[in-house]
């Protein structure tokens, strides 16, 4: 079982969350060539170690979070809001 510490709701089981994607991907602009989009969406590294991911607390506050997780042990290293404005509120 993976426990994710939601900054808004506290410790929750990962079953309350929906996986979003690899948070390190920089998507191309909307008018970029199809080739750039294919690379961004389908060709990614399979990271062994710490990976930044997006997760939505779908059965809770519904906020999007950036989670640093080990792909080896599934240990959660950090959790923060995806929205920088909200992150500033929780750092105080």
Question: What do you see in this structure?
Answer:
Helix content is 18%, strand content 36%. With 92 residues, the chain is of the alpha+beta class. The protein has one domain: Folate-binding superfamily (Folate-binding fold, 2-Layer Sandwich). The protein has a four-stranded antiparallel β-sheet. A two-stranded antiparallel sheet has the order 1-2. The longest helix has 9 residues, at 34-42. The protein is globular, with a radius of gyration of 15 Å.
List keywords for this structure.
Folate-binding fold, 92 residues, four-stranded antiparallel beta sheet, globular, alpha+beta
CATH architecture field: 2-Layer Sandwich
CATH level-1 class: Alpha Beta
Tally of helical runs: 2
- So, the CATH homologous superfamily? Folate-binding superfamily
What is the 3D form?
A: globular
Q: Count every beta strand, where a strand is a DSSP E run of 2 or more residues.
A: 6
Low-confidence stretches: none
Distance between the termini: 30 Å
Class derived from helix and strand content: alpha+beta
């Amino acid at each position: 079982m993976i426990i994710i510490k939601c900054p808004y709701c506290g410790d929750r089981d990962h079953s309350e969350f929906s996986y979003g994607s690899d948070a390190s991907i920089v998507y191309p602009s909307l008018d970029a060539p199809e080739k750039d989009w294919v690379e961004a969406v389908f060709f990614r590294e399979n990271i062994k170690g710490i990976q930044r991911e997006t997760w939505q607390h779908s059965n809770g506050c519904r906020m999007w979070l950036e989670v640093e997780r080990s792909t080896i042990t599934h240990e959660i290293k950090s959790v923060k809001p995806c929205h920088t404005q909200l992150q500033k509120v929780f750092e105080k």
